Amino acid sequence: MTILLIEDELLVARTLARLVRQLEPEAHLLGPLESVQAAIDWFGRQRASDQPEPDLILSDIQLSDGVSFDIYREVNPKCPIIFTTAYDEYAIRAFKLNSIDYLLKPIGPDELKAAFEKYHRWRQGGNATDFRDQLRSLLADVAAPTKKYKHRFTAHYLRTIVPVDEENVAYFCRDELIYLYTMDGQKLVTDYGSLDELEELVDPAVFIRANRQCLVNQKAIAGYQSHYSGKLIVMLQKPASSELTISKEKAALFREWFEQG
């Protein structure tokens, strides 16, 4: 049996290799590979030279340049994988549902022995096609997490830093400084460096970059009018009597965003 070890911590790799040799003395151990890119390159060389894949992979999840799931999306190995991790946040439910083993660090001999026993049972009664289906299902379940957006912002009110919840922000506007306009008409100074910075932080389903000067909350918009030039004039219900101009280039994008609600 050939076992490939993917692990970026040298001491952990040595400990794991020692346990493997104790539990599977006949196994041929490859690696360790320390990064996502190193593993992708390794599989590429193996396939280019028609070398067989390992029989089993022992793979850490968090590597020096990313998570190992990116390896398996790229190379789609045929062999089973035993995942190892120091964190329990990586979709443990998905591992259970897909019958792919995982071990939480620090890994003891009993846990590794049980994982090897599971592997041997798979060898006796499983097949590679079933495993590839399981792996594809697992990778779908542990897809990159949804980006987290800010829903609370800070601004200066008199001499105090105050929080402003997303629903109370009418829009942000740049005029040398970045100002936050609240739904009740207050104009507060923020410490944000640019609207580009803010645009990366806010939820694009809630805010849209109206123009170079303003980032507006959909809840503050009363409606819009088309201009003969192709621009849009956006009327804000909060603060009262305010208008924003959407450029001709962004008009179609704004309409789509506004209609989605």
TrEMBL record:
GO CC, one annotated term: cytosol
UniProt domain HTH LytTR-type: residue ranges: 178-260
Gene3D superfamilies linked: 3.40.50.2300, LytTr DNA-binding domain (2.40.50.1020)
Transcription regulation as UniProt keyword: no
Leader peptide range in chain numbering: none
A biological process from GO: regulation of DNA-templated transcription
Entry keyword set: DNA-binding, Phosphoprotein
Organism in which the protein naturally occurs: Larkinella knui
4-aspartylphosphate: modified positions: 60
Transmembrane segments annotated in the record for this chain: none
Matches recorded under PANTHER family: REGULATOR OF RPOS, RESPONSE REGULATOR RECEIVER
Protein name, per record: DNA-binding response regulator
Domain Response regulatory: 2-120
GO MF terms, alphabetically ordered: phosphorelay response regulator activity; transcription cis-regulatory region binding
